[in-house]
Amino acid sequence: MDFRLNDDQLEFQRYCRRFAREVIRPVAAEHDREQSVPWEVIRQAREWGLHGAPQLERLGSDPEGIMGVIYGEELHWGCAGIALAIAGSGLAAAGIAASGTPEQVGRWAMECYGEGDEIKLGAYAVTEAQAGSDVKSLRTTAKLDGDEWVLDGTKVFITNGGIADVTVVVANVAPELGHRGQASFVVPKDTPGMSQGKKEDKIGIRASHTAEVVFEDCRIPVDYLLGGMDKLERKLERARNGQHAGSSNALATFEITRPLVGASALGIAQAAYEWTLEHLEQRSDADGPLLEQQRIQQTLADVATEIEAARLLVWRAAWMGRNGVPMTGGQGSMSKLKGGDVAMWATTTLMDLVGEEAQSTDCPLEKFFRDAKIYQLFEGTAQVQRLVISRMQRREYQERLKAASEQLAAASA
Ligand SMILES: Cc1cc2nc3c(=O)[nH]c(=O)nc-3n(C[C@H](O)[C@H](O)[C@H](O)COP(=O)(O)OP(=O)(O)OC[C@H]3O[C@@H](n4cnc5c(N)ncnc54)[C@H](O)[C@@H]3O)c2cc1C
């Protein structure tokens, strides 16, 4: 077992940090203040090979699965909102990859990014007003009418909602079957019947656009159903016969992306930690009483240790995901839970350490603190992650007990 990053990974880490420092940081405050989409930074990310095809190729050819989480952490170190504006289309692309036929993946995945000089965005629309954690309660419907699907409903809090070139929508085709009656659809920009609703005014990740997406008699061709009709009919048939379902498309998509979300949260924690280290070095009371100095050192040690522990969980889950090792103990969820909790705890703890200056909006910690909160909310809230982990751990423990008693029985036979 070797925990060190190899030369390629180290070089990529330094490259991403340089992009974050030289391109993202200088405009972060402005986009945070204006709550504006950082198109010029997304364009530069493309030029640096950090957006679209080159980045997808890098991820696809990475045997360790670590390049994606290095990228997530380092870009979020620059600014979480801008990083999400650059990388947020990945959720739609992952939704297409998880549910689409090879032809659909070929046709739609790159439409979430654009090619050459063209910048495009993707959105993945699941959440509704009464259905966030509880995805089986979705109300948006998709009804077949001749050779068209007709979508009706309202999605809320959608990243890139209304400005995306491709929106992947999860809707009910058979509401009586709960999440087993859901399917995913691709809706291209400017499709009549799809519109942007309220744009959210957020406390954090403000450079990332979040809005409602409204579907009213929104008609799309029948082959915009991801996976195709035959697959859907087989799935509905199995559900009606009470056969084992497996996980829903939406849940499978979120599972793939969880370590990346944990890594993103860590970028904020790491940025807050590094800023505090530098700030305390420069403070006039840096050589204060010994006990005070030790209190500061102990707090910084706790923050550094928590960040490192979370990073190991993130790297392990990313590696497991890439190498097809089943996360039966909830390792993907653990990595996201720990990353989000550490980001929120670390930014709060560091503000306490810095003292009253940290209350000023001039202090960078206030932005890190605002940006951190969402990582305990989206892609599965911290409470829901705990439920998932607890259930998976229990199941794994029961299977271990069963295997041990079978071994014992075989040995004594
Ligand atoms: C900035 C932002 C961007 C987003 N981007 C997207 C996107 O691109 N696409 C998308 O589909 N969605 C997106 N979301 C939605 C996000 O995923 C949901 O907000 C999240 O899933 C939580 O759902 P909810 O808000 O409905 O809260 P609810 O599920 O209503 O939960 C409310 C509270 O109750 C708690 N809770 C719920 N169930 C339980 C339980 N069983 N036990 C204990 N506690 C529980 C939750 O933890 C939470 O604290 C985004 C949200 C935000 C804020």
* Spatial arrangement of strands, main beta sheet: 2-3-7-6
Q: How many independent structural domains? A: 3
Q: Output the structural class.
A: alpha+beta
The CATH architecture category of the largest domain equals Up-down Bundle
What can you see in these coordinates?
With 413 residues, the chain is α+β, with helices and mostly antiparallel strands. The chain has three domains: 7-112, Butyryl-Coa Dehydrogenase, subunit A, domain 1, CATH 1.10.540; 122-240, Beta Barrel (Butyryl-CoA Dehydrogenase, subunit A, domain 2); 249-409, Butyryl-CoA Dehydrogenase, subunit A, domain 3, CATH 1.20.140. 54% of the residues lie in helices and 13% in strands. It contains 13 helices and seven strands. The strands form two sheets. It has a four-stranded antiparallel beta sheet with strand order 2-3-7-6, with no helix packed on it. It has a three-stranded mixed beta sheet with strand order 1-4-5, covered by helices on one side. Strand 2 and strand 3 form a beta hairpin. Helix 1 (7-34) packs parallel to helix 4. The longest helix is centred in the middle third of the chain and has 34 residues, at 249-282. It is globular and about 75 Å long. The site of flavin-adenine dinucleotide (FAD) has 22 residues, from strand 1, strand 3 and helix 13.
